[in-house]
Amino acid sequence: MSGERVTVCLPASAGSDVRAAVAAAVAPYDRNSNTEPYQGEWDTWCLGGPGAEFTVLAGHEGDPRLIREPVGPRGETRRRQPSLCDGGPRGLLDFTSMRVDAAARAERAWRERDDFAAASLEHDLPAYYRLEAKWAVPTEHLLTLDGIWTDGSDPSRPGYGNDYLSFANAYLDDLPPDVLVVHLRIRC
What we know:
By secondary structure, the protein is an alpha+beta fold. It has helices at residues 18-26, 95-112, 115-122, 125-134, 164-173; strands spanning 4-10, 44-47, 54-55, 84-85, 87-89, 141-143, 149-150, 180-187. The strands form 2 sheets. Strands 1, 2, 5, 6, 7 and 8 form a 6-stranded mixed sheet that branches. Strands 3-4 form a two-stranded antiparallel ribbon. Helix 2 (95-112) crosses helix 4 (125-134). The longest helix has 18 residues, at 95-112.
């Protein structure tokens, strides 16, 4: 499955049946539904996926509350790194490391570009690195604890326009440590 990603926030009470909790949380936004008012955002979804992982807070790699989907979006067995997961309690996810790593990857990628591309970005490299770091944790869409789906496209929802990344990062950073945060891949 290709497509976009959504970060879903679930109450700690979602417990061990995360798949059912995710299904209930995203149901109002199912394109296949007749729910009024129509808010269709996806038609299929799967937990996590390569490139959509969270970094686990060091020392907590074996915590059973971490969510690790064993099968990828195309049914393939996923190879796991203990330091990565598809979600878990906010307090076990290392957002700081994710942002630092994203900025470092952006810097490496910039240095590997040809001279023309590098020259076009050189005037504002710090802004480029900051933008990459801002995209490290949130995804294209965010489903908040209170069931609001936001992606910056709707002025009636939080994080409209250019404020989306700032809103999403602040929202995720401020979640209580027991709230579950999960990445999904969606097709829309």
